[in-house]
Amino acid sequence: MLRSKLQKSALYEDSIQNSELLDLSLQNCPSSEISKYFPNKNTTSNGFLDNIFTIQRNLNAELNQIDFKKHPIKFVYNPTVYASEPCEKYFKRYCHNSIKLLLVGMNPGPFGMCQTGVPFGDTNWVKNWLCIEGHVSKPPVECPARPVQGFNCTRKEQSGDRFWKFWSELCGTPDKFFSNAFVYNYCPLAFMDEGGKNLTPADIKDRKVLESVCDKYYLELIRLVQPELVIAIGSYIEKRTKALFKASKMTLPVICLPHPSPRAVNNNNWPEKARNFLEKHQLMHFFQ
């Protein structure tokens, strides 16, 4: 069986020294906005979701204290804040306390989650397959080359289009997919340079503080969800997850699904790779 008992040791804590803070900021995002759509514990009846929202709210609060002004980062978006209405709908509709497979992506893409608040959130698939829509406002400082248009965005998110198309063809309905699986992003922030080029956490040289905050709440989420298996989407998340689990003495298995990005070398046949991955690890029965 895949299930491994999670260790009951204290939550992983990385101290954050003020002198180590990166010079890039979400401080222009008011604290009151961080939890506008992530309700306080007493406002919902589902205790599991209460805890999910608390983790997200606390993660955003700590990220809000980091300055990110170091070159080449010029813009930081947090769609769990300005697109928090559809983001909350995604959690409420599909996140539950019997998740067996947790699929973990890196961070929002400019034409996906940055527009819809949903991981790999190409607008077409979020609206028409996941059946999620909602109000999307604007980040405090918007990159002129990467405007947030919400569900009016017509540009396709290539990775998200590949990702959700594959699962729709395999599972038929989102309820079938989410009956055993859930998709979550390690970091809720999107980073861009002055010209709007997308920068992932892996592109940030001085990312120690960012990773320490994301690690802390990623581990809290893992302990809450208690999946049987973590499926890291891409090598960065695989390495990050394995390092975190080793430091925390956690024995939960981690495997790596190739990232669906069309920019990856020799990745035109990603759907075939994804199917082979599921067959290799004997996971097809979770989706059929």
From TrEMBL:
Entries under InterPro entries matching the protein: SMUG1, Uracil-DNA_glycosylase-like, Uracil-DNA_glycosylase-like_sf
Compartments reported by the entry: Nucleus
Keyword Nucleus attached: yes
Record keywords: DNA damage, DNA repair, DNA-binding, Hydrolase, Nucleus
Gene Ontology biological-process entries: base-excision repair
A matching Pfam family: UDG
Principal subcellular localisation of the protein: nucleus
CC per GO annotation: nucleus
Gene Ontology terms for molecular function: DNA binding; oxidized pyrimidine nucleobase lesion DNA N-glycosylase activity; single-strand selective uracil DNA N-glycosylase activity
Domain Uracil-DNA glycosylase-like: 94-271
Stated family: Belongs to the uracil-DNA glycosylase (UDG) superfamily. SMUG1 family.
PANTHER family registered for this protein in UniProt: SINGLE-STRAND SELECTIVE MONOFUNCTIONAL URACIL DNA GLYCOSYLASE
The protein's name: Single-strand selective monofunctional uracil DNA glycosylase
Organism whose genome encodes this protein: Sitophilus oryzae (Rice weevil)
